[in-house]
């Protein structure tokens, strides 16, 4: 995953994990932009102050900008050199020891790209969140930990390790554990794909856990997600081709897509528009788990 600074323990009592229910709202889904070739994979997205969408590709080391207005313009912002942030393929998944974090400054006409830190002990960096001015948190989907990275120094260490919710399920053919990551109101929220949970844990000002892990909801295959101001999460499910709404109470409803359609084939990440009225979803076109067993499409 092309991780950049753009963006942005013991289990507590576990509630019953219920399957998502269908929503009664009529939500309109439309395609803003789609590549022309299969094999493309959009992984993480963020919305700039001007409303444009920044998105990273997983199949190639690229950062793109997409205008969601009527122009629908899409442009390549930067191609990262060599092994940019890690080696990954859908066949072999991640190559441990190849990961780094980058910063992309878009305040000038030309992007200013610099490296924040090499993280050779990481096995599969995935989700990324800014904890405070000096520290980043990053999920490691293979090692099953959350890393803490100090931006000024480039030093890094493990911030959270909880095998029950961070490590991939042992019987999974595609070992992807902790995935998405957000910081909100003194809590670090994270999704764990093959553990099938959305969870949170309180953190102190030293970017360290200060309490037990709490399971918010489960029973689905979460990828990345976004949090609204009230703590409601909107979760991309990738293998289930859908977007879910998870309320702080744990109630789960479907916002868009479903297991049997390509409307959100392989939904990977979610972002809120600046006015909070629109959800943007990136997709992998069903590469992780083809729709109906054999259908994939461009991201």
UniProtKB/TrEMBL annotation:
The keyword Ligase does not apply. Residues 1-18 form the signal peptide. It comes from the Eukaryota. Keywords: Signal. This is SMP-30/Gluconolactonase/LRE-like region domain-containing protein.
């Amino acid at each position: 995953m092309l991780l950049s600074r753009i963006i942005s323990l013991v289990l507590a009592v576990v509630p019953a994990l219920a399957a998502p229910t269908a929503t009664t709202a009529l939500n309109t889904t439309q395609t803003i932009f789609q590549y022309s070739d299969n094999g493309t994979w959009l992984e993480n997205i963020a919305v700039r102050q001007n409303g444009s969408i920044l998105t990273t590709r997983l199949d190639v080391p690229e950062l793109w900008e997409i205008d969601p207005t009527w122009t629908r313009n899409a442009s390549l912002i930067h191609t990262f050199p060599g092994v940019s942030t890690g080696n990954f393929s859908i066949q072999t998944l991640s190559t441990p020891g190849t990961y780094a974090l980058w910063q992309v400054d878009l305040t000038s006409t030309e992007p200013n790209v610099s490296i924040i830190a090499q993280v050779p002990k990481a096995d599969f960096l995935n989700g990324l969140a800014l904890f405070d001015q000096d520290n980043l948190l990053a999920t490691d989907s293979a090692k099953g930990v959350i890393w803490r990275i100090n931006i000024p120094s480039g030093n890094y260490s493990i911030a959270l390790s909880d095998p029950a919710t961070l490590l991939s399920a042992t019987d999974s053919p595609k070992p992807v554990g902790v995935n998405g990551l957000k910081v909100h109101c003194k809590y670090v929220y994270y999704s764990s794909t093959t553990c099938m949970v959305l969870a949170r844990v309180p953190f102190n000002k030293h970017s360290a856990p200060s309490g037990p892990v709490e399971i918010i909801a489960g029973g689905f295959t979460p990828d990345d997600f976004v949090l609204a101001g009230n703590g409601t999460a909107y979760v991309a499910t990738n293998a289930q081709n859908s977007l879910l709404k998870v309320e702080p109470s744990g109630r789960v409803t479907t916002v868009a897509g479903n297991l049997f359609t390509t409307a959100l084939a392989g939904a990977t990440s979610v972002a809120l528009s600046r006015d909070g009225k629109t959800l943007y979803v990136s997709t992998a076109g069903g590469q992780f788990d083809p729709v109906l067993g054999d259908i994939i499409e461009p991201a």
